[in-house]
Structures are given as structure tokens and as C-alpha cells.
Amino acid sequence: MPEVSYSIVFRVVGGAIIDVSDVDMAELNSGEETKLKFTITNIGNSPLQSLVFSWNEEEGVILPVYSDNTKYIKYLDVGESTDLEYTVVADVNAEAGLYQLDLSLEFEDGNGGYSTTTGVFVSGETDFDVTFSESSAGQTSLSVANTGNNPASSVTVRIPQQENFRVLGSTASIVGNLDKGDYTIVSFQVTPASSSFRGTGVADITQQRQLSEEDRQKLREGSSQRIASQNNNLNVLIEYTDATGVRRTVEKTVPIQFRDISSDGSQLNTRKGQQESIRKNPTFIVTIAILGLIIGGFIYYKKRKNRFSREKKD
User: Which CATH number fits domain 124-206+232-259: 1.10.3470, 1.20.272, 2.40.50, 2.60.40?
Assistant: First the structure.
């Protein structure tokens, strides 16, 4: 958050001059505690004592916490400075924009006082939460929620170029407006960057056909372990227009997990491979041939027996 600095000068009786400078105050985020510090300096030629400093925001949007809005200065010599620090909070339902602070400096001895005004800006920024929803059929879905205290307009979710992933098709999805507490789901065709490596073409396919099903399963398991060991954090950019009309970008890191499509059909593929191996086994072929001969012999024997029985009766 950027820091701002300015000075307000009070001309006080007896040749004394008070310089009130704010060195810590910047934009206030609604609902969050922020330090508000005023540095009081006597830049005149006469010491001061029994000073009372206070501030007020008449709409009640910005209020001090853990203390009231009044600070006391017992003595302030020529050239001396003192810091008056407050913890303030802007109302969670405050509209973004500039709010007026009324500053006051008075003397306890009844010699009068002086007042002036300054401004405090309540930010229109918000925050988002992005979580992995699901990954299926090449689509990776992300849930995007506005978890801040301000609405977001013209929201766009974008997947930037990164080392571990690649996006097929569009890298951005236009969401529209998200009020605080709202969420939406966006989908992208995200794949691991390593999945684009397929080896050296035909030579790899030929080699794969020579492997047993057990060796193939080991290769699949090893590939899954390598993918799991890689960084699975997807970088996501959320671009939006805040409540003050400023275009902002928030970056989030989302752990995602791809469904291994081969695992869905691995059991079926294994069964097919086993069936194919059995059919090609020489023992299987010989066994089928012997069974065929036995069955054929049995049928021939039954026919001969039936014929012999008929001839005997005749």
C-alpha cells in the first residue's frame, strides 16, 4: 500500500507554529485495521504545553479502535516532534471514495484552539479465492469467489503462460460482475506441459508392442509418479475494475490435479491384453486341438454305437 505525506500548519499564539504531518496514512481497506499516525512538530520560536489533538469523521465511516480520537501533549519544545498514532477501521459497508477528517488542536488552559481538515481515501479493492473444482474430458474447472468487501466489475479470469502447464484454446474467460460473496465457475483446457512429449514416433510404438502387459503397467505407474512429483500449482490472474473505477489484477496460485484417463480403462486394457496373450499361447492352441479331437471321437463313438444297435435289432 503506498505511503502518503503532507503537512498542515497551525499558527499558534506567542509566535509558535505547529506542523501536523501524516506519514503513514494511505488507502484504508474497509473492515481492516490500519495505522493512522500524525507527527506533531513545533516549528515556531516558542515552546508549547498542554496541547489536545483530536480528529473526527462526521459520517461515522472511519472510527478509531482500542482508543478514542483524542491525544494529549504535555510539552513540546521548539523544534521538537512527537508522534500520535491511532488504529482505525473503515466500516465494512463503506462506499469507496474520499472522506473528510476534521483535525483539531486546542489548549487545556483555555487559550483557544485551531482546526482544519484533511482527507482519507477508502479503497475500492477486493480479494478473490480460487479453488480447483474438477478436471475431466480435457476440461479443468476453477471456482472463483469474491471474498473481499467490495464489488468487482468486468471480471476476467486468465491463465498466463507458465512452465508446467499449457492451455489449448482460449486462455481467458470473461466473467462479468461479481458482488462480494458471489462466485462463479470457469473452465479451461489445461494440460501438463510434460504431456506434449511423446517420444520418437514409430520406433517407440514398435518397442511398446514388444513389451509385456506387466512392463507396460510399470511404465504407466512410473509416468504417473513423475507427473505427481512435478509442480502442480497453476498460476491464475484475475483482472477486475474496483469500486473506484481502477483496473486491477490479482494473482492466485491454485493446486490442481488431473484425472489419469488411462487409469479408467486400465482394467479393461489389462483384461484385453490377457485375453490376447492367452489366444496366442501355443499351449492354449494345443489344448483346444486336443479337446476338439476328444469331442470329435466321442461323437463318432456314439454314432457307431447307435448304428450297431439298430443292425442288431434288424
Answer: 2.60.40
Q: What are the pLDDT digits (tens) for 37-74?
A: 888 888 888 888 888 999 999 999 999 999 999 999 99
Q: In Å, how far are 30, 109, 217 from 58, measured between CA atoms?
A: 17, 26, 73
200-208: long-range contacts at Cβ-Cβ below 8 A with a sequence spacing of 24 or more? none
Which band of pLDDT confidence, cut at 50, 70 and 90, is reported for residue 311? low
Which residue has 503532507 as its cell numbers? 6
Say whether 124-206+232-259 and 6-122 share the same fold: yes
Residue that the C-alpha cell 484552539 belongs to: 113
- Domain boundaries 6-122, corresponding CATH code: 2.60.40.10
Q: Which residue has the cell 484504508?
A: 28
pTM: 0.61
